[in-house]
Amino acid sequence: MEVKGAAHVQWSSIIVPSVQEMVKEKIITTVPSRYVRSDQDKTDVVDDSGRLSTEIPIIDMKRLCSSTAMDSEVEKLDFACKEWGFFQLVNHGIDPDFLDKTKSEIHDFFNLPMEEKKKFWQQPNEIEGFGQAFVVSEEQKLDWADLFFHTVKPVEIRRPHLVPKLPLPFRDTLETYSTEVQSIAKILIAKMAKALEIRPEEMEKLFDDVDSAQSMRMNYYPPCPQPDQVIGVTPHSDSVGLTILMQVNEVEGLQIKKDGKWVPVKPLPNSFIVNIGDVLEIITNGTYRSIEHRGVVNAEKERLSIATFHNPGMYKEVGPAKSLVERQKVAKFRRLTMKEYMDGLFSRTLDGKAYLDALRI
Ligand SMILES: O=C(O)CCC(=O)C(=O)O
Ligand SMILES: [Fe+2]
């Protein structure tokens, strides 16, 4: 276990100021230059009154689970993962009152006094805690956001000053939330394997209960006086297996790239937004797509979200599923361990799908 913990030390992000604090401390009318993103075109959004937004697939978890053979809901899931890489998940079975409680406690957590939050701030050479991710140089432009990132599983590598020290009842709420979301992820991944006729054991071995990995990223996007000048989260694809995202408040801001245009996501009440990450794109030999997405911010309102990431364990080897390659004849990505994959990832800035491309054969 020592070794696993040590593996994390080299993954870090340069420590940057809290945007939430900056906005709280003084009335900002112009955005500091470190946040001005003239490199990001915010006008490239679909302009057909949200037609594409309403086409983002919706998957019904109850129907998915009651299916025995390759039926319509599994087919819908397959289509969503191939064509969109994103879908909304409804009827997921998690108690809406519990989700409301989770949302309100996440909100309270970001609103703790700075004195309290400092205890949970990123430390040099660490990636977990409050801060930002993927900051590798002082010159780099920053996102208009604070985040809190932490490992949920494996439990042995949890940072002792983070989750174990979180205030109650938030700590317990997050624990329950992660368990609930984990079971959803497992079912979805199994259904994907079924749709693609990947041998179930192959997927189970990667995402089993014993040594699969789970982490969480809570995002806080403060209101911004010049929302067009900044970006809440830089365009990226998730460098994980599967992401289950929950919008914590009613403010929209997530956009996904579809046919070269940005499509705003309009979250349904009581739903999760699920997306394929780069690792699943690799495992499915490029059949399921890990789609670029970004977050825009709002002039008046703060926005919050929580992303839960599901990954194979650190020492598992990932590559295109063998049972799939047998049929498709070519492997499109090279094989590597999750640790090699993560080491490569954290030595880069977030740059769309460039890292995945580098792993192509
Ligand atoms: O805030 C959002 O809706 C998206 C966040 C996100 O993409 C991430 O945390 O990976
Ligand atoms: Fe993401």
TrEMBL record:
<dbReference type="InterPro" id="IPR005123">
    <property type="entry name" value="Oxoglu/Fe-dep_dioxygenase_dom"/>
</dbReference>
<dbReference type="Pfam" id="PF14226">
    <property type="entry name" value="DIOX_N"/>
</dbReference>
<dbReference type="InterPro" id="IPR044861">
    <property type="entry name" value="IPNS-like_FE2OG_OXY"/>
</dbReference>
<keyword id="KW-0479">Metal-binding</keyword>
<dbReference type="Pfam" id="PF03171">
    <property type="entry name" value="2OG-FeII_Oxy"/>
</dbReference>
<keyword id="KW-0560">Oxidoreductase</keyword>
<dbReference type="InterPro" id="IPR027443">
    <property type="entry name" value="IPNS-like_sf"/>
</dbReference>
<dbReference type="InterPro" id="IPR026992">
    <property type="entry name" value="DIOX_N"/>
</dbReference>
<keyword id="KW-0408">Iron</keyword>
<feature type="domain" description="Fe2OG dioxygenase">
    <location>
        <begin position="212"/>
        <end position="312"/>
    </location>
</feature>
<dbReference type="InterPro" id="IPR050295">
    <property type="entry name" value="Plant_2OG-oxidoreductases"/>
</dbReference>
<comment type="similarity">
    <text>Belongs to the iron/ascorbate-dependent oxidoreductase family.</text>
</comment>
<protein>
    <submittedName>
        <fullName>Protein SRG1-like</fullName>
    </submittedName>
</protein>
